[in-house]
Amino acid sequence: MTLYRAGSTFTGELFNRNQDIFYHFEPLTLFGYDWHGKMNKTIEEKRFQLLDNIFLDCKLPVFSDWKEYAENSTTVKNVCATENSCFWFNSRRFCAPPFCRKTYDDHLCRRACNPGPARKAELAQSVCKKDTKATAAKIIRILEVQKLIDFFDSHENELDAKIVILVRDPRAMLESRKKLTWPYTYWKGHSEEFFNQLEVECAKFAENKKEQRWKDRIKIIRYEDIAMDPISVSEETYNFLEMDISLDVHEYLISATEKDDSTKYSEEMSFLKAYSTKRNSKENLQKWRKDASWTRVQRVQSICKDYMIAFGYKNFNNLQELRNQKLDYYR
């Protein structure tokens, strides 16, 4: 469970690379992003029905089963509807046999393994039930952890569930979101929407930190901690899950934090660099501080005050502190 641009693609690889885990990359994409908390009740119910299918029945979320409730967005039209499955190519299992004739890297998978697993939904269900020990899903479209707790409590006799909450400095998240806006002029006309969304998200996640009913089954990870010490944080996470960290995950962490694979993208595909999972995490951790304006930083520190206190992020007092990368900003 996390927020948009909080480092979830990198962190999700802890589960995506483990062959004992059936990993779903953002299965709730088709329902849109309900940051304002005003989602239609029927759509809200369908979101959890889809999670029910994933976690209880190992059922692949095929788009045609849910299109009646899908958000009418470019992403849904161009990815989910076209290939009948949302972002399937970001789940490494679908980039290898028996779903693909051989194993491909993530940036090649979509074309090489087209049309994807939707036409092999029964096979996916079988693999999930027979060949894996756990199911994991990256959720960025539910803000209240209480809703997930209620969902899992309703299946307490069927599921041994745990929740990992990933957080990141909200100033860094905003800069990353701004960087990915398209066209570039979009930010100028819609910046207030970005701030309003972030304010709601920060308030919701600050409340999530106070959750006590499931305190033994919830683990909070800061992106900054896993970027600086991925091996230790990953081992702690797997201990929390009561699972063994696999060799594939261990090798990935070493590779992903020492190498930068952004050069593999052609000029026309350069936008994919933002979603790369191998970007030398230590070096990339503070890049946002070079470009962030002092005005934006001050605004985020104001609207996300409780969040920053809850998760241990320090305020900068001036532009000089912001630019001084030797000065720590989390404790």
Q: What does this entry look like structurally?
A:
With 331 residues, this protein is mainly alpha-helical. Helix content is 47%, strand content 5%. The chain is built from 16 helices and four strands. The chain has helices at residues 8-16, 41-57, 74-83, 106-112, 121-131, 145-153, 170-179, 186-208, 223-228, 230-241, 247-258, 281-284, 288-291, 294-303, 305-311, 319-323, and strands at 21-24, 134-137, 163-167, 218-222. The strands form two sheets. A two-stranded parallel ribbon has the order 1-2. The protein has a two-stranded parallel sheet with strand order 3-4. Helix 7 packs antiparallel against helix 8 (186-208) and helix 8 (186-208) packs across helix 15 (305-311). The two termini are 22 Å apart. 34% of the residues are buried. Residues 263-276 have low confidence and may be disordered. One of its GO terms (biological process) is sulfur compound metabolic process.
